[in-house]
């Protein structure tokens, strides 16, 4: 009898405590909402299956298979508005393509948001704990380790390295008018330059005489793991329902082991230099050598290299491919860009300063990044109760209350195609729109705020260099594929059908 009384008392106390906590949270939330002027989201997107939203997830998977995943997500903003909420009985998500909201999440309210757990879960198997897969102190540590390697970069030796690989690229371009996939060549080029820059050893995918089975296996494993990461993100909160495809675990281990080999070599060289009393300044620069001067943590070094490989290889290749896709279909733009290049540097190899002075080149790159942002969508997650500045109320101009743990999907592709920012021809490739255009946070090709891409200067310099060298080398560029543009969305956005073109050599 006494035991039953104690049990009943404990249960009553637990219920009372729970109710009290909920009451306190309710009152605190009501005060928070009132203080910040929050109002319910103006736009709501309901799913026909209201429990888990399986209909939406399955539609995303179907669109991904047919090459319309990101454009399907972008189309939802045309239907539901620039900021909307999706409610299910189990959870709620927010979606936005509004510059004010992105500025708040990524900059002014940065401390209120983390990378979403679903993204971290999808990317960690390959990329480990690096700058793109961590939050808080771990992210700050990664950023601190990487920053010196980018800020002290001397681009002159890197341009020499790029030229060496461009010569291999040039050999693969048919000069008899035959059709070839320039996207495939660009991805091989940036893989070769990125691996040499990062690890001091190129994969040599452009050079059949030097490419080994190990390099070929690494490239295949890396790409397959990236595709799997995107597939996992598409499942969202239902990642637990997705089975890992056969072979992915083995591919992940091989890809990481490939990088480990270079990490071990860098650490051995560091110990040898230390024994000989050599200064780090006497070492020929590569990214891994620079990182090894700051830490001997083998796993940390590998993870950082893999993270930066994504930024330095995939983004540049996608940017080049998407821009040449458009230039091949608009020969007048190719000719205009070529006139700018030849008028400024003629036949000499371009320097970083000379490329920086090419206005139309910058416009062409910006327009490709606008129409086809290499990272077209991303996610954040509220650390605690917070807000989005706009999207609430009858006019959509009031703040929205964001409960702790709520995932927010922001769509850069949709924002870059907004006609109220870029004009009625926002779906057309028009570099001249950048004459005087200042979209601010409405243009976000390299993220923004504290997480802005450290390697954007490297990526733009490499893309500019390859473009200039292509324009110097070929009089014309023509498209030979009448298929509509379809996305191949791995961790970056590019054409599923490649970029089928033909060129005529410069006279």
From TrEMBL:
GO terms for molecular function: heme binding; iron ion binding; monooxygenase activity; oxidoreductase activity, acting on paired donors, with incorporation or reduction of molecular oxygen. Belongs to the cytochrome P450 family. Keywords: Heme, Iron, Membrane, Metal-binding, Monooxygenase, Oxidoreductase, Transmembrane, Transmembrane helix. Its cofactor is heme. It comes from the Eukaryota. The keyword Electron transport does not apply. The chain crosses the membrane at residues 6-24. Pfam families: p450. It comes from Immersiella caudata. The keyword Transmembrane helix applies. This is Cytochrome P450. InterPro entries: Cyt_P450, Cyt_P450_CS, Cyt_P450_E_CYP52_fungi, Cyt_P450_E_grp-I, Cyt_P450_sf. SUPFAM superfamilies: Cytochrome P450. PROSITE patterns: CYTOCHROME_P450 (PS00086). CDD domains: CYP52. Heme binds at residue 453.
